[in-house]
């Protein structure tokens, strides 16, 4: 089975879309799939995240780059650039994780792919796909997409389909919901532009609890690495750059400070309560859902937050509250979502 993957990564959109495509790719590789990634990657280090066994074709910059993550890009320009790289090649599937691409682009890629899988959580544009994956916790997910999908599209909804790497499933097997202790904190917002949230979080943590262990994770393109490294010059504090061992850090964490992106499901799978900053419009609904179920607390919009907002939220936490949040997070995700998605894709491949 040959699979074409269309995904981008940049400081604005982060690396989460690329990360979840890679998670699904590794699981499908075990089923014999071969991959061609077609991408725009703003940081050279993001290319290194893609296994050497996968073909990578890099697209030229767009004439008019999007100004925000949800902005549609020129479908004709994007497709023609990709077609130059692909020639006449054909694939069994095209996997698309891109807020800027919609049904007009999907129709064009049918020349190269028999079936299309779209990863989405916005429900804000037509999607001409055979299989839709939206792992968000929406009250009525089918209604959100009813006018946006092809009539016979197979739909996978909810956190039970969250794409997590095997190490999260393995780490979960040795864990249980937290009892409310608070000795270790993980700070991770995004692999892209965090709107200064990592710095604010560290400043808030500086004088909060003596002896606190703090793990700080940033992407390779983090603009203020030197300043963050200086802030991490504390006993028990460590800055981790572009890592592949997030499951281990989360398994050890009692609390996470982060954004309401794809990493939210990683935190939930390991029962880590979270304080959330909203970094973009597309994170609001997920953040609200996590707060509604009791797995997290929303600090506010990242562009508006100050150190004092973090300090107030941290000082208000109690052991009982942390224990409740951990238990609720644990219930949201069981770590088996990737296997369910692979099963659905393989079943659809065999049926048609």
UniProtKB/TrEMBL annotation:
GO molecular function, one term: hydrolase activity
Alphabetized UniProt keyword annotations: Hydrolase
Keyword Hydrolase on entry: yes
One Pfam family of this chain: Glyco_tran_28_C
InterPro entries: Glyco_trans_28_C (IPR007235), PseG (IPR020023)
Glycosyl transferase family 28 C-terminal domain ranges (all copies): 197-328
Name of this protein: UDP-2,4-diacetamido-2,4, 6-trideoxy-beta-L-altropyranose hydrolase
Species in which this protein is naturally found: Pseudomonas oryzihabitans
């Amino acid at each position: 089975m040959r699979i074409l993957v269309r995904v981008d990564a940049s400081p604005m959109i982060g690396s989460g879309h690329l990360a979840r495509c890679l998670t699904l790719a590794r699981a499908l590789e075990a089923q014999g799939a071969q991959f061609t990634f077609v991408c725009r990657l703003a940081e050279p280090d993001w290319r290194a995240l893609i296994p050497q066994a996968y073909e990578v074709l890099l697209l030229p910059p767009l004439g008019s780059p999007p100004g925000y993550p949800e902005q549609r890009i020129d479908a004709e320009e994007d497709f023609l650039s990709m077609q130059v790289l692909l020639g006449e090649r054909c694939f069994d599937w095209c996997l698309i994780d891109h807020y800027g691409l919609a049904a007009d682009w999907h129709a064009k890629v049918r020349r190269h792919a028999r079936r299309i899988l779209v990863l989405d959580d916005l429900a804000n544009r037509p999607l001409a796909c055979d299989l839709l994956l939206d792992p968000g916790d929406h009250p009525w997910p089918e209604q959100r997409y009813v006018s946006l999908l092809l009539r016979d599209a197979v739909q996978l909804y909810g956190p039970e389909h969250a794409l997590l790497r095997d190490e999260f499933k393995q780490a979960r097997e040795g864990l249980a919901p937290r009892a409310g202790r608070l000795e270790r904190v993980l700070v991770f917002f995004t692999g892209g532009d965090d709107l200064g949230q990592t710095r604010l979080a560290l400043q808030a943590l500086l004088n909060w609890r003596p002896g606190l262990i703090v793990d700080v994770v940033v992407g390779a393109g983090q603009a203020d690495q030197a300043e963050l490294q200086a802030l991490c010059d504390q006993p028990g504090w460590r800055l981790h750059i572009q890592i592949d061992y997030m499951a281990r850090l989360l398994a050890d964490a009692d609390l996470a400070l982060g954004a309401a992106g794809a990493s939210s499901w990683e935190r939930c799978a390991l029962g880590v309560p979270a304080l959330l900053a909203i970094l973009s419009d597309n994170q609001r609904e997920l953040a609200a859902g996590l707060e509604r179920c009791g797995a997290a607390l929303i600090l506010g919009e990242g562009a508006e937050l100050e150190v004092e907002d973090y300090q107030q939220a941290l000082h208000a936490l109690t052991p009982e509250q942390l224990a409740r949040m951990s238990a609720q997070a644990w219930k949201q995700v069981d770590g088996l979502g990737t296997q369910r998605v692979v099963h659905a894709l393989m079943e659809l491949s065999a049926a048609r």
